[in-house]
Design a protein that fits this description.
Elements (H helix, E strand, L loop, with lengths): L1 H5 L12 H8 L7 E4 L7 H11 L5 E5 L2 H13 L4 E4 L6 H21 L24 E6 L3 H6 L13 E5 L5 H12 L3 E4 L10 E4 L5 E7 L2 E7 L11 H11 L4 E5 L8 H10 L2 E6 L8 H8 L5 E3 L1 H12 L5 H6 L6
Parallel strand pairs: 1-2, 2-3, 4-5, 4-10, 5-7, 6-7, 10-11, 11-12
Antiparallel strand pairs: 8-9
């Protein structure tokens, strides 16, 4: 924890080399953030995380590990249950590069906790887009999510109709390897087909494609229709995959009516992309309500810039997508309904 102690705004109030020891210390200490290694002598990190969330539900927890393949299921489960994030110790790097990478990632987490944005129960008034565009149909659903996203996606994707009638493309900020695991977990829980995207895949109705970690995802129009295009260009908004890259690629290459969903996450990735889409495509943008986000920055920037058409709690978003996208329902009726959703 010497890296954390080096940050001037932090004070490491406790250390433990075991899960049970950490839980004992939490009873005595005033703690703002817990960093857990996935592998410990007595309890794995997931067991410690569950115990912390049971007794301290609002305490942010970050998982850390250098054994990527073995820790994968534990990390994925923790993310689904609401861990603030995961930091991978890149064993392929030399010691100095690894320390700099860890320092940068930990500084992001410390700054986030210090700002309080991860638990900001929205002091913003709802600022809705002034000129709401009605969608006569939904040709594509685009979803962007970051910190807290795996848990949020678990409350959305499994509830989507299998015959939704359009493709769903997702950018979730995650390292390589973990997006494949995320896709597999969601596929097991969902009625709709879910998979990790690959270059050249046809973008077809009734499927969910998740951008692979470490790659930007866009779409191009090919001889067989719209196809997935991946690249390893420089990170955008410090992210790869980037939500803006997908949204701007769609604005440049896709002609149709688009439903955009912005879920929990830090930073402002997605804001420029929504603005680009709105210039060229009929668009309806739903953002997760800040009070149901683990980190509310991404939805908050959309709201502040007047780009949101609707602000919904996470538990209402899947129903909203289904109602807008179903071919056997008139979207205009949905827009004009008096239900609690829209």
């Amino acid at each position: 924890m010497s890296i954390v102690e080096a940050f001037p705004e932090t004070n490491c109030v406790g250390k433990s080399y075991s899960g049970e020891g950490a839980l004992r210390q939490l009873k005595k200490l005033d703690v703002d953030l817990v960093i857990i290694d996935v592998f410990m002598p007595d309890m794995d990190g997931l067991a410690v995380f569950k115990a912390i969330k049971k007794n301290y539900p609002n305490l942010p927890v970050v998982m850390i590990s250098g054994v990527v393949d073995q820790s994968n299921p534990l990390v994925m489960e923790a993310l689904k249950l609401g861990a603030l994030g995961f930091i991978e110790k890149a064993n392929t790097l030399d010691a100095k590069s690894q320390q700099l990478r860890l320092e940068a990632r930990l500084k992001e987490v410390v700054d986030l906790v210090y700002s309080g944005n991860f638990s900001n129960h929205s002091m913003l008034g709802p600022r809705i887009a002034k000129h709401r565009k009605r969608l006569s149909k939904v040709d594509m659903v685009l979803i962007g999510s970051s910190t807290g996203g795996p848990s949020a996606l678990r409350k959305v994707i499994p509830l989507l109709d299998s015959d939704i009638g359009c493709p769903v493309l997702i950018v979730q900020h995650m390292p390589e390897i973990y997006t494949a695991s995320l896709a597999k977990h969601l596929a097991k829980e969902s009625k709709i087909d879910v998979s990790e995207a690959a270059s050249g895949m046809i973008v077809s109705p009734n499927q969910v494609l998740i951008a692979p970690g470490g790659h930007h995802m866009g779409i191009i129009k090919g001889s067989r229709g719209y196809e997935i295009a991946l690249n390893k260009n420089a990170p955008v908004n410090s992210c790869r995959p980037s939500i803006d890259v997908l949204f701007e690629s769609t604005a440049n290459n896709f002609s149709g009516e688009i439903l955009v969903i912005i879920l929990t996450g830090m930073g402002r990735d997605g804001t420029a992309g929504v603005r680009a889409l709105r210039k060229v495509n009929p668009l309806y943008c739903i953002v997760q309500s800040p009070d149901t986000c683990i980190v509310d920055a991404m939805p908050r920037h959309i709201i502040e810039d007047g780009l949101a058409d609707k602000i919904l709690p996470i538990d209402s978003i899947s129903e909203a997508i289904n109602l807008l996208a179903r071919r056997n329902r008139a979207p205009t009726n949905f827009m004009e309904s008096n239900t609690h959703i829209i």
